[in-house]
Amino acid sequence: MEGFTGITALYIFMLAAFTGYEVISRVPVILHTPLMSGSNFVHGIVLVGAMVALGQAEGALQVTIGFFGVLLAAMNAVGGYVVTERMLEMFKSSKEARGA
Amino acid sequence: MSGMALIEASYFLAAVLFILGLKRMSSPVTARGGIVWAGAGMVLATLATFFWPGMSNYGLMVVAIAAGGAVAWWTGKRVAMTDMPQMIALYNGMGGGAAAAIAAVELFRGGEHPTSVVTLAVAGALIGTVAFSGSLVAFAKLQGLMKRSVRFPMQQALNLGVLALALLLGATAIFVHSTPLLVTFFLLALAFGVLMTLPIGGADMPVVISLYNALTGLAVGFEGFVLNNAAMIIAGTVVGASGTLLTQLMAKAMNRPLTNVLFSGFGETAAEAAGGVQGSLKPIDATDAGIMLAYAGKVIIVPGYGMAVAQAQHKIWELAQLLEQRGVEVKFAIHPVAGRMPGHMNVLLAEAGVPYDKIFDLEEINAEFPTADVALVIGANDVVNPDARNNPDSPIYGMPILDVDKARNVIVIKRGQGRGFSGIENALFYADNTRMLYGDAQDVATKLIQAVKEL
């Protein structure tokens, strides 16, 4: 894969940072906890990096650390998804609540 | 099309899904769909990664994913809504640990990387490790496994020393490849995460969890650069930025600059400032309180952590519906930092089935308190303390509060006569228009329902 180096890396970093800032800036307080939980899930993407690190690890020490990396990352991703989904499931307006 | 191009395309699509998912999660109408979008992105990226060229250890990989996923699925499904904050802290810590593990594997292997990449790996390692151990301490505190706030003399000097040493070793590790050096570096980073979180207590916990969430995002982004992984760079950086903003919003809601949260203990000065409270505590029983509520024109309910602890949200909603049937106007008022996380109370009320259009923010509701006949405070304390407005000596002076004391009558449901989580005396409880209703919030709510029904 081509490297994200030098100025390209800075551009990506800056644009992603602005995106994150903009996405959150107009969120109502009632969604702060689910949103924190949701962004906690999103950084569970560390799983793919942990998989690559384990896949390329050599020797007992690296493999052991890599294994725990994947284990922890999988917990981050799956746990983050489950709790966020459970929280968001409960959001209903008066109209929907009456219909249900 | 080569395998690598397919992986890159999957990562690109995953990044798009993450951003769209987060965007949808920021509105209550589309929020439920948002997490599903982000979840689809995660599954796609994970499956694509299995085709990454030149990898081995597939067996271990599948075992780790299955084991970690199963444990997290089981605990995530079982945890009570009231315990959500510490679960988020825990899962967040796992992510930070994973980012640190990636850095560790890359750094131990050493070799081919340019200096800039090694610098990012070390920075991500430090941030990820601090987020890992710090989040675990935050989890232990909220779960009640350890004392809320640990302090000792020279604490800040020690913390600073440990951080400085970790930074020094980290900087050395960029140029010198040595296993003992790296091990010491990681141990110091672990220690700093613990030390940094130890003195932080009580009301500041949500801000700290949010900060660690942002830090993990940043660490993931940095390790993404190390691994040349676009999905990690974008998702990590987006979370790092949005988490930082969210942390600032929370600190602002408490009128405490982030530096205060991190470096000066909450309630340190509380003991001295507490002396000046005038008046007496006036108890009321559930029957009288029920009559007050039933014949009111307008009731504003203010829930706090006490409601969460007692799991009283279902009973409170039952009571509110009962009052509405009698023609009472009922509204819920929520302080941004009520509970242990921002929006914590909204989640609990949503769980009980309270429609979100009956729930109001501080700015929306504060003007309405003077027109309310009864303000019913359930296990909330600091967020309704008028000292924040009136007493410049109070440690919470300047924090925006719900102006509950301006309602014609105030009923406070409280477990006992002790002070709140922050240890500050509450002038509201001594006000002339306040009545104290002692007991577990769920028992009291049950009694109130009974009292209203009997009328």
Number of helices of chain B: 18
Total beta strands of chain A: 0
Strand content of chain B: 5-15%
- Choose one word for the global shape of chain B: elongated
Low-confidence stretches of chain B: 266-275
Order of helices and strands of chain B: HHHHHHHHHHHHEHHEHEHEHEEH
Helix content of chain A: over 70%
Mean pLDDT of chain A: 85
Radius of gyration of chain A using CA atoms only: 19 Å
The SS-based structural class of chain B is: alpha/beta
**Cα-based radius of gyration of chain B, to the nearest Å:** 25 Å
Q: Which structural class do you get from the secondary structure elements of chain A?
A: mainly alpha
The parts of chain A where pLDDT drops under 50 for at least 5 residues are none
Output mean pLDDT of chain B.
88
Terminal Cα separation of chain A, in Å?
A: 50 Å
Question: Which key phrases capture this entry?
Answer:
heterodimer, A: 100 residues, mainly alpha, 5 helices, 0% strand, flat, B: 455 residues, alpha/beta, 6-stranded parallel beta sheet, 18 helices, 6 strands, elongated
Description:
The complex is a heterodimer of chains A (100) and B (455). Chain A is mainly alpha-helical. Chain A has a domain at 30-98. Chain A is built from five helices and no strands. Chain A has helices spanning 6-25, 32-42, 46-56, 59-89, 94-99. Chain B is an alpha/beta fold and 455 residues long. Chain B is built from 18 helices and six strands. Chain B has helices at residues 3-25, 31-49, 58-78, 84-109, 115-142, 155-175, 179-197, 205-227, 230-253, 258-263, 270-273, 286-294, 305-310, 313-325, 344-352, 362-365, 387-390, 441-453, and strands at residues 298-303, 329-334, 359-361, 374-378, 409-414, 434-438. In chain B, strands 3-2-1-4-5-6 form a six-stranded parallel sheet. In chain B, helix 17 links the parallel strand 4 (374-378) and strand 5 (409-414). In chain B, helix 1 packs antiparallel against helix 2 and helix 14 (313-325) crosses helix 15 (344-352). At the A-B interface, helix 1, helix 2, helix 3, helix 4 and helix 5 of A face helix 1, helix 2, helix 3, helix 4 and helix 8 of B.
